[in-house]
Amino acid sequence: MTKKLRPKQKQKRPGFEENLQPKSLTAPIEYSKEGKLVDKVAIITGADSGIGKAVALLFAKEGAHISFCYLSETIDAKDTKSKILNFGRKCKMLKLDVSKEKNCQKLIDETISYFGKIDIVVNNAGLHWESKSLEDISTKQLDQTFKNNFYSYFWITKFSLPFLKKGASIINTTSVTAYRGSDHLIDYAASKGAIIAFTRSLSKNLAEKQIRVNGVAPGPIWTPLIASTFDGKHNSEFGSEQPLKRAGMPYEVAPSYLFLASEDSSYISGQILHPNGGESVNG
């Protein structure tokens, strides 16, 4: 039986706003002058460079404190932290491998110990290896791809849940390859497809708790991972096949995460945003 949310009422078409019970709210959200995420605490994986770094910096600019982890690039990670501190925000930086469950638990434990709360979880860390055929993908590589790209999302979200309250936001990074496939990143595309199903399923599961779960599916974005994966010719042409005829930059993707983290998206859950240079994809 459908629950009644408002008094019974009827008007002649097209109706008067002043007669609605309750009122239809149309005024823009008012934010603190300090930003959209003032004093929120955000966990972001893989924020030493690329999309994760751009998200961390934009969140900090909008008032959030940041806890982030990275795999190995300490110089880049220190730069991320320095820039966050320059925005006047607090920052917790951890070097750890999220493909290991105990490290995901450590990320949550240390974030809570330092900040005392978690408001936003951005699962973003990702790795891929180019393979010309399915036969070239070893079980070891398949395990590594899924443990880093999918298991870490599962573990970090699971360990965060006891600390997430009404209004919290979980944002998962998937990929355009999950929608159109990839003949040379088969295991990577499969892991990103799993993230879409995880996002949609978890959004339904957490709806009663008023915790929103969404995702972002970037297209070709110019990051260190791209330059370290492909050959020179591929990198020189990277993104040119998109309708906008170029690769995107991380700062062009970060606003999608800000939208999903803030109250601007308070009525959105279980959805995927597509900053991909104009490519139309199903879903």
From TrEMBL:
One of its GO terms (molecular function) is oxidoreductase activity, acting on CH-OH group of donors. The keyword Oxidoreductase applies. Keywords: Oxidoreductase. It holds the Pfam family adh_short_C2. SUPFAM superfamilies: NAD(P)-binding Rossmann-fold domains. It comes from the Bacteria. InterPro entries: NAD(P)-bd_dom_sf, Sc_DH/Rdtase_CS, SDR_fam. Belongs to the short-chain dehydrogenases/reductases (SDR) family. This is SDR family oxidoreductase.
